[in-house]
Amino acid sequence: MGNILIVAEIQKGKIREATLEMAAIAQKLAGPLGKEVKSVVLGKDIGAAAEELSKKGGGEVFAADHELLANYNVDAFTQATRTAIEAAGADLILVSNTPSGWDFAPRLAAGLDAGFVSDCFNIEEEGGKPVFVRRVFNGKLDARLLPQTDVVVATVQPGATAAFEGATDGKVTNLDAGIDAAAVRAKFIETKVAESKGVDLTKADIIVSGGRGVGAPEKFTETIQPLADALGGAMGASRPVVDAGWLPHEYQVGSSGQVVTPKLYIACGISGAIQHLVGMKASNFIVAINKDGDAPIFEVADVGVVGDLFEVVPALTKAISEAKGG
Amino acid sequence: MKIMVCLKQVPHQDARLDVRSDGTWIQEDNIKFEINSYDTYALEEALRVKDSGEAEVVVVSIGPDRVSQALRTALGMGADRAIHVNDAEAENSDALGIAKILASIAKEENPDLIMTGLMSDDGNFSAVGAMLAELVGIPHTTAVMKVEHTDSGLKLERELEGGALEVVELPRPCLIAVQTGINQVRYASLKGIMAAKKKPIDVKTAGDLGLAGQIAPKMKIEKVYTPPKGDGAEMIEGSTDEVVAKLVSKIKELGLL
Ligand SMILES: Cc1cc2nc3c(=O)[nH]c(=O)nc-3n(C[C@H](O)[C@H](O)[C@H](O)COP(=O)(O)OP(=O)(O)OC[C@H]3O[C@@H](n4cnc5c(N)ncnc54)[C@H](O)[C@@H]3O)c2cc1C
Ligand SMILES: Nc1ncnc2c1ncn2[C@@H]1O[C@H](COP(=O)(O)O)[C@@H](O)[C@H]1O
To answer: What value of ipTM does the predicted structure carry?
Structure first.
């Protein structure tokens, strides 16, 4: 029986919150699964971060300090994690489902011929074995998965669990990551930050967003924008709207767009995939209008309307204008 | 240049999702299917290489009989030929099993570039691309939003969070898993659809590839189910007028009117 290995992620020199969430999951599972929690921190000059994690539920923390880990690099991260798995004697490897995690974790699993499960929002224990719970069909259904193999690599959805709260006194062990520079084929060039454009949704008090259900670019001008105008708010969108070129990227709300927290967020024809939800679920008050009563957006909404947005939205626009006029 | 594009056929985005009687997946009879959204962007990106010079585009899909429709569509859009792996064992496999099948095809085809989608719209694994690259022994990048072909390889922009991008270079041969929105996808023209009728679809089984008995799932789906309803929203019902009146009063309560 092997141990649990948390693959930590560094953000701005510190341990990322998502890593501490995995620490909470790992600490909860360790006893029932009869495993110890260990972690690996990959990067350059990471001593302080490794110390931090050892005190926040990371168990024994392996610090893999290497020039080629300074920036995310798929080949270097895969190699170093394999070294850490051996050092930790791990058979349950947890990685955050972030741009780096989803890039190398499946590759790692294939190399180990291990089981792989992505974007779990929960890992439970049943009969001494882990059970992985995740969304499928972009949030419309849940799935429970049972490993048929001893070694499993799992990615964990950021934000799904609270971060580890307690204090632990793990130790930090330096790890020679064993990186073969000749086998590092991918080359990191640079990171480009998002350019700030005209629309800054993060400053809006009211946002009316449209999704794929709006159906066509002109419908944004005819239906969504008028409600935003009537309320004195801004217009937003889900990703497929931007992908289709109906609106520019600065309108996109979600993990790869903007994270917004207005006083009022009205979602029209948006199903509520996790990548959209992370961009708006912290809004003060959420209204969802969707013709599918089972759409996951209703789980985060305060108020929901099951109906056709082309009926509800224009009528609401009219009523708001009247209320403001009178 | 030879480009292999991996396409999955998935339930149409607006299809009704009912869990089938054994509880482990959805009822797939009598619903519409389409090419996975991410994969249409991958195919378009490959076809653009072909449009701007020399390239052979080979599309590969694993799935039951219905998948031939997806492959015909891809051929209609401009792909040169298709490989269809139709195998009962593959139906019950997982991401790694699918990657193993695709890897054995890649080893026969020897493409300069493999393209997949970032994620399938049904299983949402986001795994097959990176696994395939590992099994073939080539480098990869996921969530690709921009591709520039250089003499020795590819200069890529991969998507990070919040609209940030990472610039990465990979030597060829390599694999890229494409993110949606990288391009605007073409439709198959009538002429393309006619031409596609003459293009070959090579049908194989896992056995033909020497993989019989080697693609059993390492992760087994115990069940799929409608997510339990939490506190959820207060649902407003009634006629449009009633609904709108209640919404207006909620917005007033918030002090926003
Ligand atoms: C790495 C990654 C990053 C991503 N980043 C983002 C992101 O930043 N933002 C984002 O939004 N998504 C993002 N996505 C995509 C995300 O997974 C979903 O695909 C997307 O959010 C779905 O958008 P949607 O809800 O508009 O479309 P759909 O899921 O297709 O939903 C459309 C909805 O409209 C409803 N509808 C249709 N017609 C009507 C009508 N007449 N009246 C009322 N309702 C109607 C339908 O019932 C359905 O619920 C990302 C995905 C990945 C993998
Ligand atoms: N059955 C399949 N046949 C061909 N390609 C597939 C299949 N399943 C997955 N893929 C490819 O792998 C990508 C990622 O899928 P997944 O890992 O299942 O989320 C898809 O976008 C496809 O390009």
So the answer is: 0.97
